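Hi all, long-time lurker, first post. I run a small reading group and we've been trying to get comfortable going from sequence to structure in the token notation. Rather than ask abstract questions, I figured I'd post a concrete chain and ask someone more experienced to write out its structure so we can walk through it together at our next meeting. Sequence below, copied exactly:
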Amino acid sequence: MVAISRQLLGKYLVTQIDGQYSAGKIIETEAYRAADDKACHAYNNRRTKRTEIMFAEGGIAYVFLCYGIHHLFNIVTAPKEDAQAVLIRAITPTDNIPLMLERRNFTVLKPQLTAGPGVMSKALGINKTHTGIDLCQPDSKIWIEGRGIVLQPEEIIASPRVGIDYAEECVSWPWRFRVL
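-- Answer (accepted) --
Happy to help. Here is the structure in token form:
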């Protein structure tokens, strides 16, 4: 999952929601692992209604509500029963920017449009109803595209994840990845 988190950088997160296409290049991710990661919702392999989707086969969408307002989009990344996921934290908008502006009630393009996991999901039209979508199916409403971009290791920054102060020793794990 840590390797996948890095590999997703430079790929494109694409949505076809309510008949409207939008996409952006992934520029920031974070990795989470259930067994020993105190920042993971399924830490210690805890199974709840919310975390059950993390135990699915990799390639499934996991979208949860944060602070009661932000939908955060994750990709389940491990074999069935091994709860691991990658949070997509930010994209650079590329396709159908006018639609993303409309979804965010913006009139002009600015970095805040998709520079955070909640606002990114809103700009792409992603919400909790998309949990469980198989991103690998040809008719999926959400998928990942390669588009031929290959990032070099020196173009990627690894650092500790953010917003997990409660996670004790796991706070310092360098599982947040960003494109320079």
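A couple of things your group might point at:
The two ends are 21 Å apart (CA to CA).
The chain has one domain: 2-175.
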